[in-house]
Amino acid sequence: MFRDLKSYVCTFVDCDAELFSSQHEWFLHENQKHRREWTCHFCKHRPFRASSALKNHILAKHSKNGPKDELPDIVANSEEPINRPAASDCPLCDDWEKSFAQSQHGDLSKLRKHLGRHMEQLALFALPRAEPDEDNEEEQEEEELSEKSQDDSCYVSTDEDKGP
Ligand SMILES: [Zn+2]
Ligand SMILES: [Zn+2]
Ligand SMILES: [Zn+2]
Fold first, then answer.
1. 32-44 pLDDT per residue, tens
2. Residue 120 CB burial class (10 angstroms; 0-12, 13-18, ≥19)
3. Which residue among 58, 105, 125, 147 sits deepest, i.e. has the most Cβ atoms within 10 Å of its Cβ?
4. CB count, 10 Å around CB of 106?
5. Strand, helix or coil for residue 67
6. What's the rounded Cα separation, in Å, for the pair 135 and 95?
7. How far is the CA of 7 from the centre of ligand 1 (A)?
8. Are 40 and 57 in contact (CB under 8 A)?
9. pLDDT, tens digit, 9 for 90 and up, residues 52-104
10. Amino acid 77: pLDDT
């Protein structure tokens, strides 16, 4: 239904990628460009989400393991695609983080579905809505609107009664 809308946008803030016309392209882009991690080969530290973080870690903990000019190569060779989502992976709402804490989301397909739903919402509203709190206001507005339309139908029927 949404396939023809160019509505998929990279959720990483510093990215200037164009909009993506399919969920597949968009998620591929995020995984290939951004969802990477850097694993320390010298110890069992959990993977880092930025190359600079691994660099700092190696400098701080493993500077004896090799000359510093090899560091860029070491860091480059430590880059791997992330195959497990993190609690912080949705920048658009808190729900992902909450549900992540409750049930460990095992794979990226759940994240794709979750973020994909946001994209569809964005396409429907045609405006970026970063504040999840706005949802409540919207519901109230909708209620007011439906009350008004009920009033309108009352007026219409009164007019008909008054008619010639
Ligand atoms: Zn991007
Ligand atoms: Zn290490
Ligand atoms: Zn979300």
1. 999 999 999 999 9
2. middle
3. 58
4. 10
5. coil
6. 13
7. 14
8. yes
9. 999 999 999 998 866 778 899 999 999 999 888 888 889 889 999 888 877 76
10. 94
Helix (H) or strand (E) holding 158: helix 134-162
Q: Which residues pair with 37 in a beta bridge?
A: 80
Question: Closest-lying ligand to the alpha carbon of 135?
Answer: 3
Q: Ligand 3 being an ion, which residues bring their Cβ within 5 A of it?
A: 90, 92-93, 96
**CB within 8 Å of 147: residues ≥ 6 apart:** none
Residues recorded for the chain? 164
Does residue 149 surpass a pLDDT of 50?
no
pTM: 0.61
Question: Considering every ligand atom, which ligand is closest to the CA of 56?
Answer: 2
Q: Which residue(s) pair with 81 in the sheet?
A: 36
How far is the centre of ligand 2, averaged over its atoms, from the C-alpha of 64 (Å)?
A: 12
Question: Do 12 and 26 form a contact (C-beta atoms < 8 A)?
Answer: no
Q: How many CB atoms lie within 10 A of CB 126?
A: 8
Token pair, residue 109, equals 């397909």
Asked if residues 129 and 122 have their Cβ atoms less than 8 Å apart, the reply is yes
